[in-house]
Design brief:
Strand content: under 5%
Helix content: over 70%
Radius of gyration: 20 Å
Distance between the termini: 45 Å
Length: about 220
């Protein structure tokens, strides 16, 4: 609903008119750090971090060799959650832009290095992904593809458009909405995988709980 509201607002503002920031309801803008959509992204990524911590604790109890993978991902998602409202990546991009020729697909200078690091990280996590049942492993890869496709792919394409047409253009706004939509879709798929993974653990805990008394 929030994404649809942002798309609708952009279509109204940027179709055949010269819109300015004063015309926008920022609470509905997915590209703003003060929007309702950003708040949802913070909640979703923080929830993923909490579930990862729970999974890490469960893996440590079993003595799993993959325990550190869970805790590393938990720390990573905590950082992503903080970045959602603090905009750390934008500050990094500004710092990089002053040192490199940030034109075209590198207009948002942080995206390409982040993409390379992410691909290396995915390669390092292949044993972790293969430890899941095939169906969940496919969903894990789908969540990563969706998130990185938005955060890196559409961010780089959007940067090349922003350089030429500016951020107040319909084409850039469409790309920005697509980027944020892919990111939140990736996070939500990942949360689903984590919930399915943790379901047997919570079922066992529920089974061990004493029956509730009907008296008193």
């Amino acid at each position: 609903m929030l994404l649809s509201a942002s798309i609708a607002q952009d279509l109204i503002l940027y179709t055949g008119t010269k819109a300015t920031s004063a015309d926008k309801i920022w609470l509905l803008d997915v590209d703003s750090e003060t929007s309702a959509f950003t708040w949802l992204s913070v909640v979703a990524t923080f929830s993923a971090a909490w579930l990862l911590l729970r999974a890490g604790s469960e893996a440590a109890t079993r003595g799993s060799a993959l325990t550190w993978h869970w805790y590393f991902l938990a720390a990573l998602f905590l950082l992503v959650s903080f970045d959602e409202f603090a905009g750390i990546h934008e500050k990094i991009s500004a710092a990089l832009a002053s040192r490199i020729d940030n034109t075209g697909m590198l207009y948002f200078a942080w995206a390409a290095p982040f993409g390379v690091i992410s691909l290396v990280g995915l390669a390092a996590f292949i044993p972790f992904i293969r430890s899941f049942p095939p169906g969940l492993a496919v969903l894990l890869l789908l969540s990563a593809a969706s998130y990185l496709g938005g955060a890196v792919g559409f961010e780089m394409i959007g940067g090349s458009v922003a350089e030429v047409q500016g951020i107040n253009s319909l084409r850039y706004r469409i790309l920005a909405n697509a980027e944020e939509g892919l990111e939140i879709t990736g996070v939500l798929i990942f949360i689903y995988v984590l919930l399915v993974h943790l379901r047997p653990t919570y079922a066992a805990l529920q089974k061990d709980l004493p029956p509730s008394s009907s008296g008193a």
